Amino acid sequence: MSLDAATDDLRASFKLAMRRFPAAVTVITSADQTRRHGMTATAVTSLSLDPPSLVVCVNQASLLHDIMLLARRFCVNLLRRDQVALSAAFSGALPPETRFGLGEWAVSPEGISYLETAQINIFCRKAAAVPYGTHTIFIGEAELVNVHDPVDPLIYQDATYCFSVPAETKAA
Ligand SMILES: Cc1cc2nc3c(=O)[nH]c(=O)nc-3n(C[C@H](O)[C@H](O)[C@H](O)COP(=O)(O)O)c2cc1C
């Protein structure tokens, strides 16, 4: 097997493996001096509690990436189970300029759009940006968190939108 074929095999099996990681679906929003933008992202994870911080991995080819490089703040909007259409819109089904026409969006005093009906909003100050491969890892320090009940986040697993059920409860 050639080195290229081996690398292709590894990429394919890595992709298959990553599809088995259930991930909460978010829309990351940010703004620079002239533009606001939002993009669906699942590569979002907690970093530390002290300080309260998280990481978001953003493809360098995306418009959001250009804006986040210039921006001082961003917001992580965790979607609810019934917000699949928002996830689709913010991952390309709608062009950037019309995306905020879908859903109930408000603007923070710092000028960052946030989804009022999201499961949670985490408003972050950008603390660092670390390029790696095709992506940049943005580290955000939480400045304000809104949490809305009930707990019912939208999950993405095996390229399918799902919702979670406690393991000890039988799904209907
Ligand atoms: C469920 C889902 C999760 C995604 N997660 C990420 C992610 O974590 N990081 C990323 O850069 N793109 C992610 N994407 C891809 C972007 O949402 C998509 O490429 C987007 O259209 C690119 O942004 P732009 O159209 O605003 O330039 C995801 C797409 C979907 C459908």
How would you describe this structure to a colleague?
The chain is an alpha+beta fold. The chain has one domain: Electron Transport, Fmn-binding Protein, Chain A (Pnp Oxidase, Chain A). It is built from three helices and twelve strands. Strands 3-2-6-9-10-5-4 form a seven-stranded antiparallel sheet. A three-stranded antiparallel sheet has the order 1-11-12, with no helix packed on it. A two-stranded antiparallel ribbon has the order 7-8. Strand 2 and strand 3 form a beta hairpin. The longest helix is centred in the N-terminal third of the chain and has 17 residues. It is globular, with a radius of gyration of 17 Å. The N and C termini lie far apart (48 Å). The mean pLDDT is 96. Bound molecules: flavin mononucleotide. Flavin mononucleotide binds next to strand 3, strand 5, helix 2 and helix 3. GO terms for molecular function: FMN binding; riboflavin reductase (NADPH) activity. It comes from Bradyrhizobium lablabi. Pfam families: Flavin_Reduct (PF01613). InterPro entries: Flavin_Rdtase-like_dom, NADH-dep_flavin_reductase, Split_barrel_FMN-bd. This is Resorcinol 4-hydroxylase reductase subunit.
